[in-house]
Design a protein that fits this description.
- The chain has 419 residues and is an alpha/beta fold.
- It is 53% helix and 12% strand.
- It has 20 helices and eleven strands.
- The strands form three sheets. A seven-stranded mixed sheet has the order 3-4-9-8-5-6-7.
- Helix 8 packs across helix 20 and helix 17 packs across helix 19.
- The relative contact order is 0.12.
């Protein structure tokens, strides 16, 4: 065999291997693209596969034993979001409960990126649940308004981002948080001092390649986006709030959030021990689906995909009747025979979030699933439930003054936060 012939065969084998590797990479990329879940985009070709997300992100399922344990430790009926697996995954929530059982305290941290004038129901989910956690465990809470993030991602001016932060703060306060246990801050106003020092410590621990791998940044993204993740990371370190937690650097932090925020805190948990802090624990929720179906989450960029806290009864009725995707059948006769497909039915999904009565929800499940209840009936029930929630929230928000916002956002100690 000639040397030239041998080289040709070797080159052919290498080319074949390269094609095979390329094909595998393309297949893997195609699988990844079946659903995209990150802090800025949530989409899927079909339903979101939450089991795949748990495997991909490396978090754990939240099972019934956690629900039972929360009830035992707090003597309060577990929140509907906990009972029905709306909050379905966690990182180290068991350690938070272990510490609480030993008499150790923790604090809560959640947040909001203020990019719109009003919140929709999907935005309310983490705040409704966080309020329950604050009341059940009697612990302090910090709420971050990432006005800087939205200024960079949504191309808003600094002034508009700050204005939206205060407007959104009114909606958050209207959820009923306890001002003696709650500190709300906007990044533009608060970042500095110990908070900024922690940001720099985190930034030094995360390479450019790692942040690109976690968040998918590209060469087209400006450096503001690449430098932002430490800003959302460091509220999980108690030393970022010296006015609240002086000398309590080992205080644990629990973060209630939607699972699309997990990448931020995977990064945070990786660097925390290197900086001498405990890893933050997380309790993570499903996405509140768009009216049109479960291929993504409710979005503020599409008014017809969302129910807003500013919507009137007429708006809600119109949106539910026109846009809420139904699992009912094409005709009454067929529906009576086959029943509704509850796996894809959005009115039933929404009721599973917001209808408090477990027995009533189970009754609807059986009646609608069997075909004895029609689509129009379940939509009417949903309209009533959502209207009550929205009108109650709107009344509460009307009572929130600028002075109340100032009180929640004042940098101050909270002497009774654990009492």
């Amino acid at each position: 065999m000639s040397l030239q012939s041998s080289r040709k065969r070797r080159k052919k084998r290498i080319t074949s291997m390269e094609k095979e590797n390329q094909t595998k990479a393309e297949q893997e990329q195609e699988q990844v693209q079946d659903q995209v879940v990150n802090p800025w985009e949530v989409s899927a070709k079909g339903k979101i596969d939450y089991d795949k997300l748990i495997d991909q992100f490396g978090c754990q399922r939240l099972d019934q034993s956690f629900v039972d344990r929360v009830f035992r430790l707090t003597s309060r009926t577990p929140h509907v979001f906990l009972r029905r697996n709306v909050f379905f995954a966690h990182r180290d929530f068991n350690e938070i409960l272990d510490g609480y059982e030993r008499g150790e305290k923790f604090y809560l941290y959640t947040g909001r990126g203020p990019s719109s004038e009003a919140l929709h129901l999907g935005h309310l989910v983490p705040f409704m649940f966080t309020k329950y956690l604050q009341e059940a465990f009697k612990v302090p809470l910090v709420i971050q308004l990432t006005d800087d993030e939205k200024c960079m991602w949504k191309n808003l001016t600094v002034e508009e981002s700050k204005r939206l932060a205060r407007e959104n703060a009114k909606d958050i306060i209207a959820c009923g948080f306890d001002v003696s246990r709650t500190f709300i801050f906007s990044d533009f106003d608060y970042v500095g001092g110990a908070f900024y020092e922690n940001m720099i410590k985190v930034a030094k621990c995360v390479t450019y390649n790692k942040v690109v791998g976690i968040f998918g940044f590209s060469g087209e993204d400006h450096i503001g986006k690449i430098s932002f993740p430490p800003v959302q990371a460091v509220p999980s370190f108690p030393s970022s709030f010296p006015h609240l937690f002086p000398g309590k650097d080992k205080l644990r932090c629990l973060i209630p959030c939607a699972i699309d925020q997990d990448p931020y805190f995977r990064m945070t948990r990786d660097v925390a021990p290197r900086l001498g802090y405990n890893k933050p624990a997380l309790i993570e929720s499903l996405f509140f689906p768009a009216l049109q179906g479960e291929t993504g989450k409710m979005s503020a960029s599409d008014a017809n995909s969302a129910i807003y806290v500013t919507d009137s009864h007429k708006d809600i009725k119109n949106k539910v009747n026109r846009y809420a995707f139904s699992g009912g059948q094409d005709s009454i006769e067929k529906h009576r025979e086959l029943g509704a497909n509850l796996e894809v039915d959005i009115p039933f999904k929404y009721l599973s979030f917001f209808l408090e009565d477990d027995e009533e929800l189970e009754h609807i499940r059986k009646e609608y699933g069997s075909g004895r209840m029609l689509t129009g009936e379940i939509k009417k029930k949903l309209i009533d439930v959502l209207t009550e929630i929205v009108e109650r929230h709107r009344a509460a928000r009307a009572g929130v003054t600028d002075e109340m916002v100032d009180a929640f956002m004042a940098v101050r100690p909270l002497p009774n936060m654990f009492n």
